[in-house]
Amino acid sequence: MIDWIVILQAGVASGTVLLFASLGEILAERSGVMNLGIEGMMLIGAMTAYKIAVVTGNVWLGMVLAMVAAGVLSLLHALVTINFRADQVVSGLAINFVGIGLSTVLGEGLSKSGAVNLLPTFSLPLLSQIPVLGPILFTNHNPMTYLGYLLTPAAWFYINRTRPGLHLRAVGEHPAAADALGINVYGLRYRYVFIGGLMAGLAGATISLAVSPGWFSDLTTSGQGWIAVGLVIFAQWNPWRAAAGSYMFGALRRLILDLQGPQTLLFFANPFYYMPKLGFFLQMLPYALVILILFIGSREAMKKRLGTPAALGVPYVRGERGL
Amino acid sequence: MAMTESIAKGFHFPFSVRFEQRLSTPAWLPALTSVGSLVVAFMIGAVVIWAAGGDAIASYEHIVKAAFGDIGVFNDTLVKATPLILIGLACTLAFRMKLWNIGAEGQFYMGAWGASAIVLAPILPPTTPGILMIPIMMLAGFACGALWGLIPGFLKARFNVNEIITTLMMNYIATSWVLFWVFGVWSEAGFQMSPVFPKSAWLPRLTDYAKQFPELGGLTLHAGILFGLIATVVVWFFISRSRWGYEIRLIGDSKQAAFYAGVNIVRNTVLVMMVSGGLAGLAGMAEISGVVHRLQGSISNNYGFTGIIIAWLAKLNPFAVVLVAILFGGLINAGREIQPSGVPRMLQGIILFCVIASDVLLRYRVRIARNQVNHD
Amino acid sequence: MQDTPNAVEMRGIVKRFPGVLANDHTDFDLRLGEVHALLGENGAGKSTLMNVLAGMYKPDEGQIIVKGAQVRFSSPRDAIAAGLGMIHQHFMLVPTQTVTENIILGLSEPHFYLPMAELDKRVMALQEQYGLKVDPRAKIWQLSVGEQQRVEILKMLYRGARVLIMDEPTAVLTPQEVDELFVTLRSMTASGHSIVFISHKLDEVLAIANRVTVLRHGKVTASGLSTIGVTKAQLALLMVGREVVFSVDKKPAVPGEVALSIDDICAENDRGLPALRNFSLQVRQGEIIGMVGVAGNGQSELAQVITGLRGCSCGRVLIAGEDIANMKPYAAIKRHVAHVPEDRHGVGSSPGLSLADNLIMKNYRESPVSKGWVLNRSVVRKQANQLKTEYDIIAPSIDVQARLLSGGNLQKAILAREMSAGPKLIIAVQPTRGLDVGAIEAVHKVLLQEREKGTAILLISEELEEIMALADRIVGIYEGKNMGELPAQTATLTQIGLMMAGTPQGSAQTKEQ
Question: Which of B131, B324, C318, C350 could form a disulfide with B254 if both were Cys (CB 3.0 to 4.6 A apart)?
């Protein structure tokens, strides 16, 4: 039997990783800077968090330093794209390579280290008593999952209802207008690229210290950073949609694992049980699904003709002109 | 903000860095910045290796020796460079049109799979002579790679689906696809690899001619490098001398201008993604037919991603791709024994970083100016 | 000691850009409560000087004195704090945000949470005070150009600006809207505001300004001249440095057959809103149709529909009798339709490609530029050098990137490419926008030559003087509808203004039968 409650409960926990990464990327992209280096920054975060936890035994210190490490990497991206006006796509790819390589170098031998303290899990009183939703959302989760519930509305409120959010949107839509009113375009872009980095680091740390504990080199993230980038496009830069997408993908990951367990599936013989090699097709599923949701998102965006921050990917240079 | 206020109150930094747009770029500058960024990258890499507890000088010495030290290791370097040339060209072609094909890794795998299917399915019997077998395998490899480029290309052209994400997702799908066949269908005695191909499916190697020329003995360089060199000339000719190449450059520079000039952007997008994927697929075919001689799970040393860096370091110039690919072939070749094992990959990332950071020098003149201070 | 103290003084301002000296020791002063016009050709350095005053650019040399005290602005924020607000030619408004959001953008109060209902009310109150009406909750992209300008003015007033710098504020308005703007400006100077009015239009300067400063090539040729008793010709001489002919020599038109017939066209703009509503128009060989309309009333879309850059949901575009509506752009190119597009940097040229590559954009498919699949490089270079000489394109070589050409030279290159293809129909959209007098004259000459050759020309322009001088017939467009046509010899500015404001004039083109 497939236990849907368990799948959804685990889905919420592992979807939190995608949620952190995509919320950070939404903020960065809203300011006009696309950072494709999420995967690399997550790896740096996951490695740092696990290494610190192994060495010091303090998971919280691990979380914080993971964010700092990924944040520093994102500042490189900011420097190259904002000051040096390099192509954001290529710089993002470079961030990935550096992130993957650096985490492999510094995480050498880490996979053999023994058990380590992980993030604690706990249930929320009262809320966990709610039928169906209680066991899924409020039972035996680590604190990061609960943090995710708070961050989604907070991000939406921040972007749409506050002055810093107003300035963030202005910088990503029309940096010259923002600049003309004295808004520090470079400063804000730096700030949000850095926040995007911090969030990616947090996402990575959440993997290695909670969702699937341990350090398995680049298999630790297995493309989740890229899925997050795809989710941002699908979400049309809206935190609520990003949350919906993240939890859906989280549940899918768990479902794929659980699908191979039972002998029967909807009263039929389960092909994945009897032919385990078909599992390779299950593994393709999330990636194929990303392509599908991007396709759906693009059709929607074409119809509504909106979504992308107008200045996304465009370096801002005050008063540049030709001969 | 705090900085602005302090400036308003009269504090001045003595110097400021200014970027001034260049009106023309000297011809030697791109090469100089590429070389310069390589040097800087290796210096940064040295610091990291040292910080991680390694000996940077020994590592680099080892890299040079293990990559270019004698004819034997240089042979290995060229073998590694072969797929890199083809993939570097694949990326060059796509990037020239500002199509971010970062799916070369998957296209490489699919090309290898397609070529293997000819032998293993088997589509042609093992007794087929090489003169027929090899071209069919090449076609199959190219076609499967092209198919893997066609899907994101079509989605991009027709529905404006972001090709960066789709090509990347296609990588993961391709790896799972190949693993399924390696484990599930063509597995040899339950191992994670297919049976060895018959000799007719092997690309000719230098060592095959050791009988006539004894000095070639042991040299594993295979005909795949010829594909690479021929493709270099062809890609160069297409980009800079053909009508189609003009359209690609036009689209790459300004889509709107290309549309205004009556260029068919949808068709070109699909076509370029197909050819780009096909070249990467051909690299996959060359790798299994020239080196591995069987299909297995791990056939790529991260070639697909290294190709991106090569294309960029070569400033999207096909001939420079060959040189850079040989350099990176050496790096991969030597890197197998370097500890810690992530060093080559990290170095690649740092190199790419330095290259894009140095690009600013091509577009802008950097001036360090003394800030004027008015004493009044 | 002066009777009225100066609101602003600029002394010896120098501003350099790579390859350009935009301001060469320029002086400027603005008195309290005056409208001071800053007059000069495009490229004379007017906008640069005012961007320095508004804190956008830092001057390389010189001083700025506001109300007697020397100031140094490191950002526009400093200038605004000193009471100086600039309204740019291209409005600095965030299209996806509301009017109120744009007005409060960049301020520090309220610091965090934005109570929008209350802020909307404050904006309304400000509107009442100055008589500048616009819905505070509307998104900028939903507003007309005139309304957007009001938002820009409100934005500066909300910040308590006492000095308003307006960069070519009338360029995008109808004559009637210009009159309204002038009323607003006068009421503002009456309440103690000072206004810098940047313009290259002599009539307007004489109509609104108390004093005028003229710039030529970054240098002042007349400083703070009172406009009383000054003639247009005198100002023109100061501005250009030579006598300017206000009329163009033009032979009477000899209209031939119908070259372009637009039949009942409907099309949408980029936002999916109707841009053309059952629009019809005919252009004959050997005549210039001048199309007037406020920006955003469908004229850009019309040019795109004709040239195949935009599809249409109904109607036909007949080129020499053949319907090419909804075909690819190449269909129009093949039928010798030349297109001088509005956006010469993004659409009409490929900024990163060389001048030579830009010159073959329309004929690279044809012999002798290409033989089969292969481009013939020597022909490409020969053609480029020829056109460069013939059209006097000033560039270091034909290998220079198009983005490095000045606006005038880029436009000459585009004209060279389009005219050398032997056009039968020319669609020219804002062909002289932003060009200096020399370049404008060159563009006009080319268009008139083509007219004499018997080419049909549709000229879409916001420069009414240009339309009056070149066109044989004047057609108005408003909200995507044809507002009728007037013979150019007898058309008056009032009639044209009425068409631009949506009142049909003359023989409103009704559908035949």
Answer: C350
**Nearest alpha carbon to residue C239 among C207, C217, C257:** C217
Chain-centroid distance, C-alpha B87: 4
Mean pLDDT of chain B: 87
Distance CA B92, CA B113 (A): 23
3-state DSSP call for residue A268?
strand
Nearest to A66 by CA among A83, A54, A77, A79: A54
Which residues, other chains included, contact B87 with Cβ-Cβ below 8 Å and sequence gap of 6+? B104, B108, B279, B280, B283, B303, B304, B306, B307, B310
**Confidence class for position A265, pLDDT limits 50, 70, 90:** confident
Q: Which residue of A has its CA nearest to C269?
A: A305
Residue B206 amino acid letter: L
| The pLDDT of residue B350 | 87
pTM score, two decimals?
Answer: 0.88
What domains does chain C contain, in order, with CATH numbers? 6-240 (3.40.50.300), 249-336+423-513 (3.40.50.300), 350-420 (no CATH)
pLDDT cut 90: percent of chain C above it? 56
CA dihedral sign, ordered C95, C100, C101, C106: positive
Q: Which three-class secondary structure string do you get for C179-213?
A: HHHHHHHHHHHHCCCEEEEEECCHHHHHHHCCEEE
Distances (CA, A) of B154 to B104, B166, B235: 16, 11, 22
Q: How far is A290 from chain B (nearest CA, A)?
A: 7
Which C residues 65-104 touch B at CB under 8 Å? 70, 72, 74-75, 77-78
Query: Given an 8 Å threshold on Cβ–Cβ distance, is C362 in contact with B253?
Result: no
Phi-psi region of A160 (alpha: psi -120 to 50; beta: other; left: phi over 0): alpha
Give the end-to-end CA distance of chain C in Å, rounded to a whole number.
74
Segment of B284-293, B366-375, C390-399 carrying the highest mean pLDDT? B284-293
| Mean pLDDT across B342-356 | 83
Report CB contact under 8 Å: B264, C70.
Answer: no
* Closest alpha carbon to C178 in C474, C469, C493, C394: C493
Neighbours of C507 (CB within 10 A): 11
Q: Which residues pair with C84 in a beta bridge?
A: C163
Note whether C192 contacts A: Cβ–Cβ < 8 A: no
Instruction: Please give the average per-residue pLDDT across B96-100, as a whole number.
Output: 94
Kind of pairing between the strands at C69-71 and C473-478 = unpaired
Domains and CATH numbers, chain A: 4-304 (1.10.3470)
Distance of alpha carbon C292 from alpha carbon C36, whole angstroms: 29
- Nearest alpha carbon to residue A258 among A68, A30, A3: A3
Q: Which residues of A touch B183 (CB under 8 A)?
A: 277, 280
Contact flag C348-B244 (C-beta cutoff 8 Å): no
- Please answer whether residues C82 and C66 qualify as being in contact, where contact means their C-beta atoms are separated by less than 8 angstroms: yes
Tell me the one-letter amino acid at A263: Q
- The count of other CB atoms within 10 Å of the CB of residue B255 is 18
Distance CA B286, CA B229 (A): 13
Q: What are phi and psi of B243, to 5 degrees?
A: -60, -40
Would you state the pLDDT for residue A131? Answer: 87
Average pLDDT across chain C, whole number? 89
Query: pLDDT: is A315 or C119 the higher one?
Result: C119
For residue A213, cis peptide bond before it (omega within 30 degrees of 0): no
**How buried is residue C117: exposed, middle or buried, by Cβ count under 10 Å (0-12/13-18/19+)?**
exposed
What one-character-per-residue DSSP string does B204-241 give?
PBGGGGTTT-GGGTT---BTHHHHHHHHHHHHHHHHHH
Record: fold of B78-336? ABC transporter involved in vitamin B12 uptake, BtuC (1.10.3470)
The predicted model gives A106-133 an average pLDDT of 83
Overall size of chain C counted in residues: 513
